[in-house]
């Protein structure tokens, strides 16, 4: 493997270790310190900038490896068609084409996975930061209203007492309305007579 593909493999291995570290369930305090350091440190920002530049080169390597893989596949197919016409195949030529095809595919997968994992790593980091900020906001809201549970119970008791008062007043109103109707009905009957 050439030096630039060896460096790409090293970058891929580093990405895998970093991803694993990001998704390990650390306690909130540790996770907050680590992510705050990573998001605010100027040294980490410079390293991230250098890595972004290296991903440009990995992208170029990916497209080069892709072209090489297509070219070798086409050459291999042409050689197979020529050998079928002659009836005799050379084992060394077939082995050579198979090895070249394998190396080209390996390089495509290596660079492709490196690029894909960089996107996954970036998104995972952003989601983890959002989660930390959401947890901080939740903790602030929870501290701001510590007696929210007792407030709910108090309001429920007030509601029940108001409902009981309403029911008793409704009952009294209905009784008074019935008495009023009897009295006014009795007077109307006397006036008609």
TrEMBL record:
<protein>
    <recommendedName>
        <fullName>Endoplasmic reticulum transmembrane protein</fullName>
    </recommendedName>
</protein>
<feature type="coiled-coil region">
    <location>
        <begin position="152"/>
        <end position="179"/>
    </location>
</feature>
<dbReference type="GO" id="GO:0006886">
    <property type="term" value="P:intracellular protein transport"/>
</dbReference>
<dbReference type="GO" id="GO:0070973">
    <property type="term" value="P:protein localization to endoplasmic reticulum exit site"/>
</dbReference>
<keyword id="KW-0472">Membrane</keyword>
<dbReference type="GO" id="GO:0006888">
    <property type="term" value="P:endoplasmic reticulum to Golgi vesicle-mediated transport"/>
</dbReference>
<keyword id="KW-0813">Transport</keyword>
<feature type="transmembrane region" description="Helical">
    <location>
        <begin position="108"/>
        <end position="126"/>
    </location>
</feature>
<feature type="domain" description="BAP29/BAP31 transmembrane">
    <location>
        <begin position="1"/>
        <end position="140"/>
    </location>
</feature>
<dbReference type="InterPro" id="IPR040463">
    <property type="entry name" value="BAP29/BAP31_N"/>
</dbReference>
<keyword id="KW-0812">Transmembrane</keyword>
<keyword id="KW-0931">ER-Golgi transport</keyword>
<keyword id="KW-0175">Coiled coil</keyword>
<dbReference type="GO" id="GO:0005789">
    <property type="term" value="C:endoplasmic reticulum membrane"/>
</dbReference>
<feature type="transmembrane region" description="Helical">
    <location>
        <begin position="47"/>
        <end position="66"/>
    </location>
</feature>
<dbReference type="InterPro" id="IPR008417">
    <property type="entry name" value="BAP29/BAP31"/>
</dbReference>
<comment type="similarity">
    <text>Belongs to the BCAP29/BCAP31 family.</text>
</comment>
<keyword id="KW-0256">Endoplasmic reticulum</keyword>
<feature type="transmembrane region" description="Helical">
    <location>
        <begin position="7"/>
        <end position="27"/>
    </location>
</feature>
<comment type="function">
    <text>May play a role in anterograde transport of membrane proteins from the endoplasmic reticulum to the Golgi.</text>
</comment>
<keyword id="KW-0653">Protein transport</keyword>
<dbReference type="Pfam" id="PF05529">
    <property type="entry name" value="Bap31"/>
</dbReference>
<keyword id="KW-1133">Transmembrane helix</keyword>
């Amino acid at each position: 493997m050439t030096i630039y593909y060896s460096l790409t493999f090293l970058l891929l291995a580093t990405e895998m270790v970093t991803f694993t570290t990001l998704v390990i369930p650390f306690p909130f305090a540790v996770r907050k310190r680590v992510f705050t350091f990573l998001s605010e440190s100027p040294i980490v920002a410079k390293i991230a900038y250098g890595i972004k530049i290296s991903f440009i080169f990995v992208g170029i390597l990916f497209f080069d490896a892709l072209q090489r893989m297509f070219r070798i596949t086409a050459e291999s197919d042409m050689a197979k068609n020529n050998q079928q016409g002659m009836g005799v195949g050379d084992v060394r030529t077939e082995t050579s084409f198979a090895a070249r095809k394998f190396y080209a595919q390996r390089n495509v997968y290596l660079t492709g996975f490196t690029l894909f994992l960089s996107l996954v790593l970036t998104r995972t980091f952003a989601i983890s930061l959002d989660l930390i900020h959401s947890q901080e906001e939740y903790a602030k809201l929870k501290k701001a209203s510590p007696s929210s549970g007792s407030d709910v119970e108090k309001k429920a008791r007030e509601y029940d007492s108001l409902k009981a008062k309403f029911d008793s007043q409704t009952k009294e109103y209905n009784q008074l309305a019935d008495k009023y109707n009897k009295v006014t009905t009795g007077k109307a009957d006397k006036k008609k007579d």
